[in-house]
């Protein structure tokens, strides 16, 4: 079924936006209905006549209660999830099988969920209300965090299916509170990301300098200047307006791909800069977040200054300093986040992005950058081969041109010789005509001499007679 949900999401969100518009949501519902009717999950099935889709729990399908053959509710935390959560639990060094609020705090905060949501998660998972989380309670907390990361609302009361089997006899009140008609105790305060005062295990979350809603960054950060220079903001804003093609006030990874690639920075560095700028982890950047990303890129390109591991106070966009956002400026806890990220990627119930950082757009950019680099290398190779072929052809053309020049010179020489021969031929014709005239004159003289001789012969014959 999880693979089916992946297919439904991919078909409903073909552009990889990470969210569904009205048409995409309609397509998703139609595909779910087709899957429930045994039809193929494909766009060709959209025109089939099938019953409407059915959901057991309209608020959160993943938290729907399932009952075993014996009548006992199955635990919503799946075994593969539980094993991963147990590994994270052990890495936090529990004392007597319990984790204090101080040890759980970094893991919860690094989920980058709002503090009021984390407060609800803590109060729901601390089933015993002892200010500590045991192994099963920690698994409940992690399960709720990941459902919240998948945009599912955190329930006001813990569903029966989420109560660990080991605690179901101890938490009849919680079960009763989830059944209609039985009054439930009021939900805990939203800023109660802490334990009861008597235990004091989570007091540090509400102490001075904490990140609870009562002690946000509002008071201190309004007086801080923004690290992005005023002289550059206008230029970044102009680029943002030109890049925001759909005019929704955000730019996606696809829209900024070309701009990021022009920097020549590595894929990992660009992904890190995106993660810092995308403070709310929605896969898109606002105008200020885009300006911050451009500033960090410019610092690296022009000055060689590496971006920080986490945003400093003066880097946080001004419009976000009045909100208890936990996104870009908390130092991650390496081992916990690695385990959480691995769990998120492997979770077969996830429908959205498979990355814990929420920068699916950047992953697409990285793949496209790698593809473009491969294409660039291929094109450069083709260019080099073409240039080599051009050099060979140019050499051949030059050689042929040299031959042509030689032949042209020979032709010109022959033309000159022809002209000389023609002139000599004309002179010889003139000499011929002269000789012919002289010959004619000689012939005429010869005839005259002949006639004179004949006359003299006749005259002498007559005298003798």
Automatic annotation (TrEMBL):
> Coiled-coil annotation: which residues?
362-445
Keywords attached to this Swiss-Prot or TrEMBL record, sorted alphabetically, are: Calcium, Coiled coil, Metal-binding
Which residue ranges are recorded for the region named Disordered?
166-218
Q: Which Gene3D superfamilies does the entry link to?
A: 1.10.287.1490, EF-hand
The molecular function terms in GO held by this entry are: cadherin binding; calcium ion binding
UniProt GO cellular component terms:
clathrin coat of coated pit
Which Pfam families does the UniProt record give? EH
Limits of the EF-hand domain? 113-148, 231-266
Annotated signal sequence is none
> Which PANTHER family does this entry report, sorted A to Z?
EH DOMAIN, EPIDERMAL GROWTH FACTOR RECEPTOR SUBSTRATE 15-LIKE 1
**Descriptive protein name:** Epidermal growth factor receptor pathway substrate 15 like 1
